[in-house]
Batch of 2 targets.
Target 1
Amino acid sequence: MPFPIERPRRMRGNEKLRSFIRETRLDASKLVYPLFACPGTKVKQEISSMPGNHRWSVDLLVEECREAAGLDIPAVILFGIPEKKDEVGSGAYDAQGIVQQATRAIKKALPELMVITDVCLCEYTSHGHCGVVKEGRVENDPSLDLLARTALSQVEAGADIVAPSDMMDGRVGAVRHELDSHGHTQVPILAYSAKYASAFYGPFREAADSTPQFGDRKSYQMDPANAREALREIALDIEEGADIIMVKPALPYLDIINAARFEFNVPIAAYQVSGEFALIAAASERGWVDRDRIILESLTCIVRAGADIVLTYFAKDVARLLAR
Ligand code: PBG
């Protein structure tokens, strides 16, 4: 039924009609707010490439979480900047580590807020790689034990969900086994399954001081050119026990989110990463784009592609915009 019978504009004439037929809606219950914990007290240090985001000492981090919870954001994901780094990233699996301390403090003050912990070594290793390094190579299997210990110590500190982001082969299975054998069968794993070796992580590495000291992450993170391989990575993580899978970054990888949506029946998360944040923040600071509209549009598109959950540094902005 072509024109003049069919007139798609008929359904766009006013906001009531548009809202009536809208296919995708954002709501705050899908959001995860990423936060950086650092040592000290009363520390609130802005990350220069991520304006509005800070490294927080635990006392102030709890207050930031309180604000997020007050905006109906259901979850935060924590990254740690440790006092000191070493070859084997021992700060990652130390019961007194920065993320463990932060987790305990947040869960004590705000038991209803879900704490997700990023399971990785790169913020804690002196070389900045996500696994153990031997003779200049990032070793897979020796890293699994440390990652599993990291997840366990985070759960023992009160983490509600653990999120392995290292991209070692077999790490989801190793984490699941470690948690189960200590009785934590009910703690879900959010696996960074299709995590690409992306230039969009630049600002994060400034924030977490986790730039690799030699080489790059291409031997473990995925090649941006590959889509079928992402589906294989996701399938493996599901087999190993992932409860939620993640695609990262988000906006440049909507095809991957969408393919995963049709291929798998598990919940899908997408991470609008630091570089995606920085591009929007910088352009809107210059008045080149409309900040609020572009935040809502980018997140709507990520959800439209198939994400159930979105990790975003704009979480508070989105929650405020949606509440208006
Ligand atoms: C740790 C980790 C990274 C990010 C999340 N977890 C950095 C990296 O892989 O280099 C990036 C998040 C962001 O850019 O916002 N492996």
Target 2
Amino acid sequence: MKKVLFVASESVPFIKTGGLADVAGSLPKYFDKKEFDVRVMIPKYACISDEWKQKMKYKTHFYIDLAWRKQYVGILEAEYEGIKFYFVDNEFYFAGDKPYGYTHEDIEKFAFFCKASLSALPSLEFRPDIIHCHDWQTGLIPVYLHDMFMENNFYHGIKTIMTIHNLKFQGIWDVKTVKDITGLNASFFAADKLEAYGDANYLKGGIVYADMVTTVSDSYAEEIKMPFYGEKLDGLMRARSNCLTGIVNGLDYDEWNPETDKLIYANYNIKNFRKEKVKNKRGLQKELGLEQDERKFMLGLVSRLTDQKGLDLVDYVIEEVCAPDTQFVVLGTGEEKYEHLFRHFEWKYHDRVSANIYYSDERSHKIYAACDAFLMPSLFEPCGLSQLMSLRYGTIPIVRETGGLKDTVEPYNEYENTGTGFSFANYNAHEMLGTINYAKDVYYNRKREWNKIIDRAMAMDFSWNNSANKYADLYRGL
Ligand code: ADP
Ligand code: GLC
């Protein structure tokens, strides 16, 4: 039996700000329990809801040295859908109303998290064969394993995998401070190790010291070897390319299933969506105070409101996107300029634009079920889960051909009757608009064809099964 520990900064169902949480919380369920014992370790944030906190049981506590101080580490435990979750408790570091805040605080917070996670293992009597690290917040784990944990026999031979969900975020701060906080040996702060462009870089450390590096789609694995997508680490990605693979994300098909989803107005499947799916549109139109017309083309957007998601393209042509023959439903939080943009257009066109500027799991399900199309014109997209959710709900994705979007959405070809969505290549607002209008034309004027696109979209299989097998192969090979 191989033991694997996922370490991540967020995981469903406990805490989520984006797709990382979906992956960390659902992938572990899809391994053969006879072969793998996969557990998950995340911080116990103060902002985790009480409902979940009540389910956590105290396991142990101890103290570690960090930044010249002794710090309390509590470990709690909970089981969810057959998977064991550990929670690292420290009320100083994990206070606040959201998981992430100011960079200088996060830098210390996640150094603490990495060191505490490793230190907890002996007292949990769980010695993983593999620690599977996710994103920069866990980048110090492979580094620590090569430093102060080396001398302890318990840690000998533990292998590490570093999965990059987003190369944009690297955890960067000045060398002196990071040296003080982490207590790492000075020799680690060199250009072939933790240091990049004069600063300390957590993700770089993880990539350099992990035994394997993965990212969440094939295209993104290629893209990040080039300067445009490489976020200044493209040289490192090229240097590590022998150990770098892309494994596309899957979806939790139990959680995201229009046939059984309890959060939507009407359940439907690939056979009856022609009659049943529209009930979700009617329900949402009523709930959001939009004009109640079930023929209206409804376009959805559920997203962190950041530049990554291509929102400056939407901004540029927003008048045309919010055309009279369209209803536009947005759910998201993030940069103020985008929050204002969508609020403004809701105010301007209240019967056809709805701006939901908050986080709501329930509302997101309703939008995936209700809309005709889903807009995701990302500048870059390591994988993207929203388009997978859309496909599963027969809501046709309109995407830019980048990263995981390119790998999961097949563009509609009207001559060959193929494709599961609409896409455009260049990062250009009018190219996006042309694609939206093309989709709208098929929706209004070739309804039969539109429904066939839905047929193909809903028939796609983006459950975790395939990708979990690829991770299993990786684990076996280490
Ligand atoms: P990223 O991880 O870059 O944010 P993904 O497409 O991989 O992008 O994952 C985003 C996830 O977060 C999806 O599950 C999406 O439904 C969800 N999400 C984003 N914003 C919100 C929101 N405001 N309310 C509810 N869910 C949201
Ligand atoms: C990141 C990426 C997103 C990906 C998610 C889960 O947040 O932005 O594309 O789907 O991680 O891997």
